[in-house]
Automatic annotation (TrEMBL):
Pfam families: Fer4_13. InterPro entries: 3Fe4S_ferredoxin (IPR001080). Signal peptide: none annotated. This is Ferredoxin. SUPFAM superfamilies: 4Fe-4S ferredoxins. It comes from Candidatus Gottesmanbacteria bacterium RIFCSPHIGHO2_01_FULL_40_15.
Length: 83
């Protein structure tokens, strides 16, 4: 198990973090980007090793699908692009 299973994780041109305090385990991120996320034993989203196979658009869409905006995305320059 990685030290920080909820990130920050570099996925392609994005750095993605799941805020474990905000995450409610709705799993909408998994529905949108199933190669990127899973729920751990605390029902919090964690990253999968297959996240690099996901389309960048799916990563952004997964963050937008989160009902509590727990997925934070930064671009390669460090600028926050979502939320």
């Amino acid at each position: 198990m990685p030290d920080n299973p909820s990130g920050p994780k570099k996925i392609g041109k994005y750095t993605v973090t799941v805020d474990r305090v905000l995450c409610i385990g709705a799993a909408s991120c998994i529905a949108v980007a199933p190669k990127t996320y899973a729920l751990d034993n605390q029902a919090k989203a964690i990253f999968l090793d297959t996240a690099v196979e996901e389309a960048p658009e799916a990563i952004v869409d997964s963050a937008k699908a989160c009902p509590v905006a727990a997925i934070i995305i930064h671009d390669e320059s460090g600028k926050q692009i979502y939320p």
